[in-house]
Amino acid sequence: MDNIKYWLWFSLAAGNRRISANKLLSDHTPEEIYNMSETDLRKAGAADGELLNALLVKDLRAAEKEIAAADKYNITLVCPDSENYPDDLKDIDDSPYVLYRRGTCDVTGDDRLRIGIIGSRRASSYGLSVAHDLAYELAKRGVVIVSGMATGIDSAAHDGAVEAGGKTIAVLGCGVNVVYPKENASRMVNIMQHGEVMSEFAFDTPPYKWNFPQRNRIISGLSHGIIVVEAEEVSGTSTTAKLALEQGKELFAVPGNITSPNSVGTNRLIKNGAYIVTGINDILEQFDFLTYDEDDGGSPDNQPEAVPVSQNIISDDEIMPEQLIMEAVRTEALSLDEISAHTGLPLPKVSSVMTLLEISGLVEALPGQKFIKTSKIR
Fold it and tell me: What is the CB neighbour count within 10 angstroms for residue 299?
C-alpha cells in the first residue's frame, strides 16, 4: 500500500501535466520524487512551474483519503508496481499511474482475447443492433468486450456481452463512483457483475469532456483489437482508432450506408486498410490465441462455428444490400447475375450498389465482368 500511496500522491499532483510528469518517472519512483527538494526536482527536470509547485506539497492526506474510500467500497487500487496491474497497459505510451478497479473479476491477467467495440454516441438502430450482436456472439466464445459505457455503441456492446453471460470491461472518463450517463446506473451494475468498471480518475471526478480522449488510450491499450461500428468524419472514435494503430493493435470497421454521416469514419477506415467486418469470423481469424469458456463446449481444438453477420447479426428485414453483396464477394469473384442469385437482390439493385461500392474502393472489377472484395481488406 505504500507504493499505491505515493503513486496516488503523484497522480493527483500531476493532474493533466502528464508529459512533464512522465519525464520524471523515467528515472525516479513516485516515492523518490516525494522526497526530493525543490533543487532536486529542478535538476530532475520538473521545469513546469505548476507541476513543480504541486510536487512541493508534501502531503499524503488526499492519497490516504482515496485509499480509505477504496477500502470502504471494495474497490481495488493498482499501480504499475502491482501484480494485478494489466501488463498490456505497461506497454503503451503514457501508462496510467493508478487504476481504480471495481467489479467481480479480473479478466486482464489471462490469455483471453479482449476486443474493444466503439462508435458513435448518436448511433443508428442498425449500428446499435450490430454492436450488440457482435459483442453477444464474441462474448459467447469467451472474448472479453472492452468499451467506454457511453451512450450509443458502447452501451449496446456492454449489453450484448452481459446478455451472453460473458465478460466485459468499461473504462470510464470519470471516477468509478460516478455514473455517466445517469441512465446507465443499472447497466453499470450489470457490467460490474460480469467483469469490471475501470478508471484512472480519482473518486468523485466528474465526466469532464477532456477526460474522454485521455481514457481512450486505456480502451485501446487493454484490447487486442478494436472494432469501430459507426463513426462520423471527425470524432473521438476516430481518435481511439488512431491510438489503436499507434499501439500496434488490429483495427476493424463495420461498413455502413454510404449516405449516412455515421458511416463516413468507418468506410474511410476500411478504405485505408482496416479489416472489414461482416461477421465475427472476420475478427476471430486474425487471432490464434483465443480461449473459450468450457461451458460453451469450446476449445482451441473444438472451436464453435463463427456466424457471419448476414446470418446472425442482422435480421432479414434489416440487412442492407451493401452488406449482402460484400459477404457474397468476400472470397470469390462473381458476376452481377451470380451476385443477384447469391443475395436474392434484383439485378438492377445489384448493379447500382456495385457501382457505388466500386467507387468507394470496397470492391474491384476483374476480367470477365466479375467483382471481388478489394484485396487490401480481405
Answer: 13
CB of 118 closer than 8 Å to CB of 229: yes
Three-state DSSP state, 129: helix
Is 371 within the bounds of a domain?
yes
324-344 tens-digit pLDDT:
888 888 888 899 988 888 888
Q: Which residues face 195 on adjacent strands?
A: 168
The Cα 41–Cα 37 span in angstroms is 6
Look up the CATH number of the domain holding residue 363: 1.10.10.10
What is the arithmetic mean of pLDDT over 46-72? 91
CA–CA dist 169, 114 (Å, integer) = 9
Element (H, E) at 308: none
Rg (C-alpha) for the chain, rounded Å, is 23
Residues 279 and 214 in one domain: yes
Helix and strand numbers (H, E) in the chain are: 18, 12
Model pTM? Answer: 0.76
- Closest by CA to 225, choosing from 251, 204, 202, 254, is 251
For 262-285, letters b (16+ CB in 10 Å) and e give bbbbbbbbbbeebbbbbbbebbbe
Query: Other C-beta atoms within 10 Å of 37: how many?
Result: 9
Residue 202's Cβ-count burial label (10 Å; 0-12, 13-18, 19+) is buried
Number of domains in the chain: 3
CB neighbourhood size of 326 (10 A) = 23
Q: What is the CATH number of the domain that holds 290?
A: 3.40.50.450
Of the three residues 290, 312, 334, the one that is the final residue of a domain is: 312
